[in-house]
Amino acid sequence: MRYSRQRELIFETLKNFETHPTAEQLYIQVKQEMPQISLGTVYRNLNILVEKGKIRKVDSLESSSVRYDARSDEHSHLVCTKCGTVKDLDLSYFYSVDKLLKEKFDFTVTEHNIVLKGLCSDCSLTEK
Amino acid sequence: MRYSRQRELIFETLKNFETHPTAEQLYIQVKQEMPQISLGTVYRNLNILVEKGKIRKVDSLESSSVRYDARSDEHSHLVCTKCGTVKDLDLSYFYSVDKLLKEKFDFTVTEHNIVLKGLCSDCSLTEK
DNA sequence: ATAGCTGCAAAATGTTTGCGCGAAA
DNA sequence: TTTCGCGCAAACATTTTGCAGCTAT
Asked: For chain A, first and last CA: distance in Å?
């Protein structure tokens, strides 16, 4: 990867954000410093930075589309990165964390969006 | 809300999915039973079902766009539903859960995508 | 010199919406 | 009969990509 003024500016600008901006928001900000920059360049560089592990996308299932679930009660998901299987996981596993957050930060959790990825038991067998 | 054959079929079809399909995947499946149905109807009804709490969207930050984060190490987020503040949360809080999943299901967690929503300490003061 | 990166614009993808017709209450 | 939901197509929003020229190495 070669140096580019645009990429550096995008990275620095993102670092200075308090929130987690969208590509568009970042573009608007970056444009103040470098008016001729294009939105395509912002997207291209964000993708490169994610690939190189310098930044991350904030979302759970890396999917361009929204996915739906007929289970209407709150629950979380276990995704196997090898076979792709998605298993439901009861929220009760996280209640101890909720309690800790209440005690420590006085933060009252009302909603969980949790996706844990890793290797399921079947796949860890065939791994070796 | 009035009854509709389309909505019922969409809901039933979603329930029969093992995975968490996209609107498009659902559309393809539903079309087998009801060839004249339109993709717009599928989207419309999924939105209605989410509103009514019959189904859920599987994702963390409800945003049409991807959001980026310059912190490249893994961490999770606490979002206050009242003031909108997003705080970073260290992953160490979840290690006990990881351990439990290993013991119970032999699932090895390698990646966490966690967003907890609720009320932050500042907002719970002004709540009363 | 030569990859790689840029700006631009077009295309691709995912989702929503206005309209006029048909179906549920 | 009066709404509400439908199918269709167009609009919209987000993201990717082909191209021709520029830039870091």
From this structure: 34
- Which residue of chain A comes nearest to B62, CA vs CA? A59
A36 touches chain B (CB under 8 A): no
How many structural domains compose chain B?
2
Task: Tally C-beta pairs within 8 A across A and B.
Answer: 216
Mean pLDDT of A23-47: 96
Distances (CA, A) of B88 to A5, B75, B115, B121: 29, 7, 10, 15
A82 lies in the same domain as A22: no
Q: How far apart are CA A64 and CA B66, in angstroms?
A: 9
* Amino acid letter, A66: V
Q: Given an 8 Å threshold on Cβ–Cβ distance, is A55 in contact with B65?
A: no
pLDDT tens, position by position, B13-61: 999 998 788 999 999 999 999 999 999 999 999 999 999 999 988 765 5
Domain region containing A16? 1-71
Entry pTM: 0.79
